[in-house]
Amino acid sequence: MGLYIGPSCRLCRREGMKLFLKGIKCETAKCQVERRQRSLAPGMHRWQRSRASEYGVRLREKQKVKRYYGLLERQFMKYFRKAERLKGNTGENLLQLLESRLDNVVYKLNFAPSRKAARQLICHGHVCINGRKNDVSDYIVKIGDKITLKGSEKSTKKVKHQLESNPNFTTQGWLQLDREKPEAIIVALPGRADVQIPVEEQLVVELCSR
């Protein structure tokens, strides 16, 4: 699987907004978007943002979604083609698929401080689905799936420390979390309101359908 290994803050600066790629650091004064003028994109020549064309507007929306969920082009288009085959609105189907990825779910449960950290937690075998170890971060969860941790002290300690570091964290309605064990159950599919990044999915559909 392809993986972006460059600086995360560069992606936020390019989109001109916080994508929360580095967890709690994005909410502090160390955030690059806060420290630099929002109008400045990365680059040694301080390239200034200009009025984008219609294609440029749609491209930025697609890039924003890709970077928010940590996907590369081929991975993103795989989800888009799958969303096209489903009934209903293609844009909402696409966002629902991306929200249902296991790495996103682990992040939304506050088992990890960021999606990147959630992927590492999964790939190292700390997460189980319905009692079986699952090290595939792009696994699409379904209603009734039970997410637990591998029965080891290291796995439990790591996640409990993360939960205790943010006691005011609240899960979304489609997730049912038991902080004590810790474990969670998928009680519904994520809806459009559960997507926390401001995105116009119809523009993404218009670009990818060309």
Question: How many H/I helical runs?
Answer: 9
How does the helix and strand content classify structurally?
Answer: alpha+beta
Could you give the order of the helices and strands?
A: HHHHHHHEEEHEEH
Query: What's the β-strand tally?
Result: 5
CATH superfamily of the largest domain: Ribosomal protein S4/S9, N-terminal domain
Q: Which CATH class of the largest domain?
A: Mainly Alpha
Beta-strand residue fraction: 5-15%
Distance between the termini: 26 Å
Largest sheet: 5 strands, antiparallel
Keywords:
210 residues; 2 domains; five-stranded antiparallel beta sheet; Ribosomal Protein S4 Delta 41, Chain A, domain 1; globular; single chain; alpha+beta; 9 helices; Structural Genomics Hypothetical 15.5 Kd Protein In mrcA-pckA Intergenic Region, Chain A
What this model shows, in words?
The protein is α+β, with helices and mostly antiparallel strands. The protein has 2 domains: 8-98 and 195-208, Ribosomal protein S4/S9, N-terminal domain (Ribosomal Protein S4 Delta 41, Chain A, domain 1); 101-186, Structural Genomics Hypothetical 15.5 Kd Protein In mrcA-pckA Intergenic Region, Chain A, CATH 3.10.290. The protein is built from 9 helices and 5 strands, in the order H-H-H-H-H-H-H-E-E-E-H-E-E-H. The protein has helices at residues 8-15, 32-35, 54-69, 73-85, 90-99, 102-108, 115-123, 153-165, 201-208, and strands spanning 127-129, 132-133, 146-149, 175-178, 183-186. A 5-stranded antiparallel sheet has the order 2-1-3-5-4. Helix 6 (102-108) crosses helix 7 (115-123). It is globular. 31% of the residues are buried. The model has no long low-confidence stretch (mean pLDDT 84).
